[in-house]
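Supplementary Methods S3. Input chains for the assembly prediction are listed below.
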Amino acid sequence: MSDPRLADLSCRLPELRLLTAAGDLEHYGRDWTRRWIPAPLAIALPATVDEVQVIVRWANEHAVAIVPSGGRTGLSGGAVAANGELVLSLERMNRVLDFNAVDRTLTVQGGMILQQVQETARGHGLLYPVDFAARGSCSIGGNIATNAGGIRVIRHGNTREWVAGLKVVTGGGDLLELNRGLVKNSSGYDFRQLLIGSEGTLGIVVEATLKLTDPPLPSQVMLLALPDMDALMEVFALFRAQLSLQAFEFFTDQALQHVLAHGAQRAIDGEHPYYVVTEFDAVDEQQREAALGVFGQALERGWVSDGVIAQSEAQAAALWRLREGITESLAPRRPYKNDVSVRISAVPGFLCEMQALLANEYPGIEVIWFGHIGDGNLHINVLRPHDLDEPAFLARCEKVTRLLANTLHCHGGSISAEHGIGLVKRAYLESTRSAAEIALMRGVRKVFDPRGILNPGKLFTESS
Amino acid sequence: MSDPRLADLSCRLPELRLLTAAGDLEHYGRDWTRRWIPAPLAIALPATVDEVQVIVRWANEHAVAIVPSGGRTGLSGGAVAANGELVLSLERMNRVLDFNAVDRTLTVQGGMILQQVQETARGHGLLYPVDFAARGSCSIGGNIATNAGGIRVIRHGNTREWVAGLKVVTGGGDLLELNRGLVKNSSGYDFRQLLIGSEGTLGIVVEATLKLTDPPLPSQVMLLALPDMDALMEVFALFRAQLSLQAFEFFTDQALQHVLAHGAQRAIDGEHPYYVVTEFDAVDEQQREAALGVFGQALERGWVSDGVIAQSEAQAAALWRLREGITESLAPRRPYKNDVSVRISAVPGFLCEMQALLANEYPGIEVIWFGHIGDGNLHINVLRPHDLDEPAFLARCEKVTRLLANTLHCHGGSISAEHGIGLVKRAYLESTRSAAEIALMRGVRKVFDPRGILNPGKLFTESS
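Predicted structure tokens for the full assembly:
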């Protein structure tokens, strides 16, 4: 350790695993965004809460910035370390600490991978219902830091709904035990809630007590082909009113083409501009017949042009792959991403303006969009044409994002539905949050992290 | 207006309704606690958000404290004005502003009475599910300020779960529009969540966008008589595992005696030490039979000694009255109240210690307890004997509360489950929240209310 600050850290924590090899700095210094060049000072891999606290205190003394790091699957640059920060990876803190059958809670360390949380819950005959495509690599701490949503929000809500307690190390180095798994606790400000979605700028999530629920009811998966955009909200309203939806996911034919090119199997013949994958309770014959009835109504009214119901688990997985495979199929193209939301009732008006905007501003550029329509959440992926260089492409996209942010503002929407603000959307935060709110955020940040060592520059710039 | 500060306020807002008559000061200066002598400066009854903002700015300039005031049904002194504060009553701001069928949201002013919110939702064929005995007089703003719970938490959660957006005037006079009804919004700190349960110390809730849900399924109400305390958690576990519970409420025979003396009808003959009122889904014959089966199992195992199922809505209401009438039946005695919670799994151990403590510390004093056992929430009501004067009684209760707070601390519990801290439990906040957390609360308070004009002295003292 030639850096005297790191030497001091090693001296305080001789057992701490510290990485400084170039490959490690690159690996741990970035997330799924690829816009910044990783340049961390070092990677710390603490194994205990004590070690995390010592690191935070050390960082305060040396004025070293810390980037809390989970699975680094983020799409907003929240876990990027490009300015000599210490990356504090929770990956070794990935154990189950407790399962309580009476409380139906699972207590885990912050670095546990989402899929392991889900599997542990299943092993106890229960469900941790937050789910999305990055499940195999994202960490629960990161999920909490962005209040991750995903494909089951329409049924189960966001990560926020499932956190019964948090252990957090603040920027000042204090260890807080927030809410401790209580169902009812009206004893002052609920900092657990404040920490959820704070993107590592207030504290580091070292442990989480998660609520579990009953395993999902038997369900069916249906793929629908839609003739036009107007049909989308009609079909959603019809299905929501008559079925008990677990998911209602939307994608375009262009998105489908990428998934098919990536190896997925076509499930509906012919060309259709839009598709929906929906999953709903199908406990008995009556519910299964109701689903067919609803499909029939939609067909009759011309809102769907074709459809298929999965007849096996394998087929259900194949239908889901058409939606869940989109992000992966686009990944090699490193798309420019927007992740926006509006109220559900504002979706039709917003979609109309958004489509016009994208068509107008991205002529000749491939734009893939899809989303959690039942939550008012759309993902827009812009693919760089081969004849446009990266900086010019980025500049163009940023210009369009500014216009999109204006449109969102008019519709009362948000520039980040579930990915967080990070570095990517920092310039647009003002389209969603007022100047007064951002000033309050800066103030609260200073209370939890007086020296601003936790994830500085993420979410908002330090001073206005 | 002889007070020059009030004269200035009237000058700024000539239309503002201001009350200064002695009867008004007394009426608006207290809540359901009766421990403090009301002594507000005046009562302001603003009709608009603008007026609220002007009042807050005026208060900042004149260093006048404001007590935000809803239905004043609070049991912790959160709405008491005993030190020359301006009471800012929201009672004129009680209108429905919007109903959105697609979003399933209801937007109301902060002063709307809970029961009106419930009835408005029902009028739209939907349910606002937070419910408790004070529904006819408490306000939605007050519910939000304490994250009110009640009798349906086991099914529907606390008020927090049902707030999709808030309009709040901060202590600094800023108007914040928080979350604006979005399902997904990961754009920085969720101040909506921070404001919920902040007891009027960060901002005044002037509007709320509430989530609504499907109307409740057809249900049945059952009253159970239990032979002993050990049976309680067994019955709860059995019923929770086999039925879909909407409520599971517990009370003692002593509590029952007060309700009967207050005019309620006995529903089960004989003497039994403990009772449960439970409500559960009963959609079809199969579910109704399942309920009878579960009751039979409990009877067979000796966990219940008798029971009755309501055969009509009137009988269901009569059974519910046995539980819901307790608080009202005790009110003339002005009981000293505790409102405590532990994790559900900690209930048996805590109950055991709590019973011993109460028996030991309150010999010859009547202690009535009941609660939301499925949420780990118990209400303890201590009745003053006629031969003990008020100050001596209070001193005794405060001493026991300190012991109870220690017991709670050992069991990871909370000194306030759903009533809030207010003035009544301020001295015990440290049993539930750490010194570091309370310091952070003070810091956050300063960010939202730099001059400390909103509800000063409630929740915590201003400086440590």
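Residues 17 and 45 of chain A are 5 Å apart (CA to CA). Chain A has four domains: 4-90, 96-211, 219-328, 334-430.
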